[in-house]
# Entry
Amino acid sequence: MEIDIGDDTDEETARAIATAISEHLGRSVEIVDEEAPNTREADWRGAGSVVTEREEQLRAEIEAIVSGGPERGHEKIADLGKVFVRDRLDMIFDTIEYEDGTFARQTDEELPADGLLTGVGTIDGRTIAFTANDYTVKAGSLGQMGVEKVIRIEERAMEMGIPMLRLIDSTGARLDTAEREPGETHMGRYHGGKMFYNQCRLSGQVPQIGVLYGPDIAGSAYTPVFCDFLIMVADISGMAIASPRIVEAMTGESVDMDALGGPEVHATQSGSADLVVPDEAAAATTVRSLLSYLPQSYAEQPPTDESIPPRKNPNSLDAVIPEQPNKAYDVHETIDRLVDRASFFELMPRFAPEIVTGFARIDGRSVGVVANQPEHVSGAIFPDSADKAAGFVWTCDAYNIPLVYLCDTPGFMIGSAVEREGVLRKGRKLIYATSNAQVPKFCVIIRKAYGAGIYAMCGPSFGADATLALPSAEIAVMGPDAAVHALFGGQLEAMEDEAREQFIESAKAEYRNYIDINAQASKMQVDELLPAGDLREQLKARLAAFSTKQRSERPQHHGTVLF
# Structure
């Protein structure tokens, strides 16, 4: 209730009158002065609210700033099929709680907010920090105040222990001479380099997710690749250390942006993109889904969800595993029978497909799945697949996500080509990551476990909290074919074709007796030999039992194998 006491009443008396009326009526009472200068009622604020002209002016300025860059900038994003940055944020976040630096560069009408938005929003009740380039402002280029805003939000995310979401739509550093100040360089202690320094410091502390909406060139292209996860939007995104024009000028190579660093390149050849999505709506959905597997920070546990039965019957698992060790099959048939329905979130599906990596849920718990893919080159481990799996294992360990290894591999690939590609150097990364990961780790030997492949896939000597074997499992230094040729190579050369084939089959049968999984289980070389149909229930029980597993401090700064 509002009352006007009048101009002749002093403030103390007015308050006393208001209190008496409030007590008498049992209602709150507000004193208003209808003659007060420079004020008016504001319906949007609620009854009795007043807004000064000064505040109105400030709100008008804010409204102009948040509308983005000049009209030509909005026309450009429309031509490119892009969404305005604030609409982009609304697609991903439930709410934007606040922003910082709205008035950065307010003196330049061409540079509202300096072309970069930073702040904090919520997704499914979780607090998430963000940066987002505004492409309507000089093509999202980075200016001095924009860099300052990024540095500040990175440091606050670190202090608060919340994920960082980076919506990247930038052509890189702003090169206009008028933009620069005397003595300013990209390498200054508190300039561009500090952004990347902070991003490196954030690694492993809080999840960092990048979404790339446009071509990102030169130094700024490190922002997306330093993220834990990178999503590229098809047709409009790309990244490279130099633009096609610079590439041609410096090297003579004529190439367009798509061929130089488009989504297809980074999804299938460089391995820099975790996922490529068809449009911005899919990007928003993917970000939200990815976050659902990740904790707020390294100090917290991943979220849980309700337990849902698998998409396919777990009791039919044994039927999809071929009896012949070299026969191809799709490991997704196994995964679909182990994880909660529709929970498998595959990463890098088209890069190094001989190994499958992704998040899933088993009984509602987040897990990381590392699985050999027998459908592709028999599931052999190549340099790229070792690199891919090592990074995934290391990320899961950083964010307390248990690991489930599904082993069906003949081991590391051999030959001069892979040696030149660094199969030993890259292969050690996977073995190192597996050895040092301290989250709960479970190795399931589906079928083949030959050579150093079982090392990489968390075999008994590599810290597995359980090594589970199915009846189809074969654990050996090498496969039967390779073993027979290694042992009897000289004899085989001297044999006639028919005799050679008979001898090989006989020797392979003898070798299989040596690697019989029942005999190995009897010597406790595996923790449990179990029917395939029981595997999901076994994983559920063991994940629950090891949910309280503790990490241990180690007397070292860090290892020397770098990811």
In short: Residues 497-514 form the longest helix (18 residues).
